[in-house]
Amino acid sequence: MKISVDLNRCVGYGQCVFAAPDAFTLHGSEALTYVPNPPDEMREQLLRAQVACPVQAITLGVEDAGAPAATSPRQDPHVVVVGASLAGLKTAESLRETGFAGQLTIIGDEPHRPYDRPPLTKACVSEKLPPDRLELPVTQTLDADFRLGVEAVALDTSRRLVRLADGSSIGYDTVVIATGTRARPFPGGAADGITGIVTVRTRDDAAELQRRLALSPRRVAVIGAGFLGGELASGCRELGLDVTLVEAQHTPLQGPLGSVVGSAVADLARGKGVDLRLATTVDGFEADDTGALRQIRLSDGTTVEADLAVVALGAQRNVEWLDGSGVLADADGVRCDDHCRALDEQGEIVPDVYVAGDVAAAPHPVLPGRLLSVEHWSNALTQAKTVARNITRRGDQDPVPHTGLPSFWSSQFGVNIKGVGYPGIADRVEIVQGALGEASFSVLYGRGDRTVAAVTFDNGRHLSYYESLVREGAPFPAGFSACDDNTSHAVHPVGR
Amino acid sequence: MASTLFKQILHPDSRAHPWDLYAELREEAVSVQDDGTHVVSRYEDVKALLSDPRISSDIGKATPGTRMTANVPTPGTAPTFIIRDNPEHDRLRGLTMRHFGPPARPGGVEDYRPMVEWLVRERLDNLIGRAEFDLVEEFSHPIPVRVICHMMGIPLEEGATILSPLLGDVEREFMIDPFDAELVEARNRHQEKAIAYLSTHVERLRENPGDDMLSRMIHDEGPGAPLNLHELLGTALMIFGAGHETTVNLITSSMLLLLRHPDQLARLKADPSLAYGAVEEALRMEPPAHMRPRAATADVQIGDQVIPKGASVILNLAAANRDPRRFTDPDTFDITRPDNAHLSFAGGTHFCFGAPLGRMEGQIAVRELSRRLVGPRLLQDPPPYRDSPDLRGPSELRLGVDEVLPA
């Protein structure tokens, strides 16, 4: 079977764990992991888990998801989705849900059917979950032609063609750009030619990391303490491995969440025994005679004896294939309007070209005048739905805008971190529930006098309220009194 | 304008059919009662307030003078996590959950499945040959009482004859009228007797621990453990009470609904896996607990109304579950209803502790009842109800059957 849990909605009530303890696991008070492709014998348990979820976040896939059309072949129009990950799959699924009856083609550069990426840096490390058991469920038969293992190399908007690496091309009536991102390699080529330095973005990457972790490295160096770096370091500690986490900024997660909240993460990491090197960068890697990593030189003059390094320095958008297409795309993403329609250099809509997921650079009503690329699971989902609705709308219907707020989660060092909004643009934080360093707390982020984001540490059950404050741009600081008896109410500069 | 709707709901004459009064409550986002209680009954509002950090479960944070604030905590026990805010809530609940569910005991409730299956079979076997019986007395009541006794290491005889009747009295005396000194006095007396019984029992388990949850709590040597005696007694009393009365209601109400809707019962008979959806739908339409008391620790705006800081708040889960703004045909019983995110187990910090156990008992019960009762029919509809408007359920459910099949 194939299942998925929308972990943005999940707040850790744990009802699925009670109902199906072999499929779901609760870590600490709130963080959930699950077996995405459980055996069919668990069906009854999973049905019980699904009905028991108080926030209805569990999807059980249909059994015959891959089945072709039962009767006559699909007719025009033809929608071609470029990108076979979450955004691409959800676009296809949403198209069928909204009644799209035309032809559907999904192109993916990886040879695998769409799978869920978040476990790659979480359960695939800490629980040794096999990366080939992550296939995403669909709620209905897609009847789509999957072209997998072949990259799209060009988009010809005048002839309405997608050109593939194998020399073939596919004509479209509508094309959806959902090519996502790839891992940013260690800069300057310093890691080239040395074995034991990896990145984690794909299923195959995670399999390679698992293989190397199973060899019991003396020490794992994780380079970059963003969300993924923290998760990887945390997972390696759970395996009992020695871990050094190297971060150029003053705290983990300083870029996305600021240093006030980041310092709480630093304490959590140290509490779990991570050797945390802050305000430090990697100067170089040393290999042994066989070309295998043995030592890492750091900017503070020290060295780390490590035979495995995981580079977690963020992602780069897969936009190169759009060169010459007329669609405006660069390192900041593929420009689109608030209806997820691709734009050209002049800011004009490119007909019948839509954008969804990590690769999109889109405006948002909460932040007029700014374009945002949001590399979160939830954004792939909400943009895919917007794209599908706009593709299938009738001629007399207005396109719908994308209004989904970014939301995210990350489980690391025993804590579930959840957030909503745009903490990256805030200048101050207010502790509104609990206190930094307590088992659970909540913070609001303000830009000027307006609330723009909220983050909870093991306190996700209250996030829906904070989301309402972000959505209405509520005054900042909020100054309300939470019922928690240990609330500090402190306001700090966010710390960048 | 102050309303007296809530007083009408509390009146025993409304017990069988409070739904029209609830619909009236839903006409306003907040219905302010004559005693100052603010009743919230629309789905989206109740759902939001269950997770709102400004809404406390510690009734002591409300300004005195309302019915709710007149209900004093049980003498001789510490306040339970049900009425504590964080961080105390998480401490007390965590030390209890450690012996019941995840993360420490993920299979904690599944471990009881064989026992529940056995109890259900045994109760139905016992009815073979009967043409008429009271489902509450023969089935809905004994099963949860036996399960909870087993969990707490209480000898069945003592649980059924001493503790359960005492708590039945307490429950009856609880919500009707806290201003009635005689009732309050009676309630306290019954509660004290229950505590006295549990104190003896805890001492017994301290000396001779069994393989039960309460023994494990008493002998817990983990971080922060064990609970002190007052905390243990409060928690044990709460679990015993809340853990069986609500499940009695759930089983009885599920069968009542299925018997009122023979088409749905027929579907369940044809596909036993519909028992899961049937129990969820019964939970939505006939929640075992109707109302949750709360206190506002700040002014809370709902639509164009404000719940002022210090207000006593009632979150009307049962009314929210039938809000037509959220549920299509909310008064229709549909065991395959999609997206049935009812609020019967509340939500937020105080999400029902025992929900997984109640669900399991309910699912197994309705599956087996639908399978083994041939030609079941209600002999009295509506049935008589127990007094409580909150922990609401039939006091008996007389059924006629053509036959009770063997297992």
SSE diagram, text form:
The complex is a heterodimer of chains A (496) and B (407).
Chain A: E1 3-5, H1 15-19, E2 24-27, E3 31-34, H2 43-52, E4 58-60, E5 78-82, H3 86-97, E6 103-108, H4 123-126, E7 145-148, E8 152-156, E9 161-164, E10 169-171, E11 174-177, E12 181-183, E13 197-198, H5 203-213, E14 220-223, H6 227-238, E15 243-246, H7 254-257, H8 259-271, E16 275-277, E17 282-287, E18 293-298, E19 303-305, E20 308-311, E21 315-317, E22 329-330, E23 333-335, E24 341-343, E25 349-355, E26 360-364, E27 367-372, H9 377-392, E28 407-412, E29 415-421, E30 428-434, E31 441-447, E32 450-457, H10 463-471, E33 491-493
Parallel strand pairs in A: 5-6, 5-11, 6-7, 11-25, 13-20, 14-15, 14-20, 15-16, 23-26
Antiparallel strand pairs in A: 1-4, 2-3, 8-9, 9-10, 12-21, 17-18, 18-19, 22-23, 24-25, 26-27, 28-29, 29-32, 30-31, 30-33, 31-32
Chain B: H1 5-10, H2 19-26, E1 30-32, E2 38-40, H3 43-50, E3 55-56, H4 67-70, H5 88-97, H6 113-125, E4 132-134, H7 135-140, H8 142-152, H9 156-175, H10 181-207, H11 213-218, H12 229-260, H13 262-270, H14 275-285, E5 291-296, E6 300-302, E7 305-307, E8 312-316, H15 317-320, H16 355-372, E9 373-374, E10 377-378, E11 398-400, E12 403-404
Parallel strand pairs in B: 2-8
Antiparallel strand pairs in B: 1-2, 3-5, 4-11, 5-8, 6-7, 9-12, 10-11
Helix pairs in contact in B: 6-8, 6-16, 8-9, 8-12, 9-10, 10-12, 12-14, 12-16, 14-16
Question: Structural class of the helices, strands and pairings of chain B?
Answer: alpha+beta
Strand order in the largest sheet of chain A = 7-6-5-11-25-24
- Average pLDDT of chain A: 95
* CATH structural class of chain B: Mainly Alpha
- Rg result of chain A: 23 Å
Number of helices of chain A: 10
CATH architecture of chain B: Orthogonal Bundle
Protein name (chain A): Pyridine nucleotide-disulfide oxidoreductase
GO cellular component, one term (chain A): cytoplasm
Domain 4Fe-4S ferredoxin-type (chain A): 1-29
Keywords (chain A): FAD, Flavoprotein, Oxidoreductase
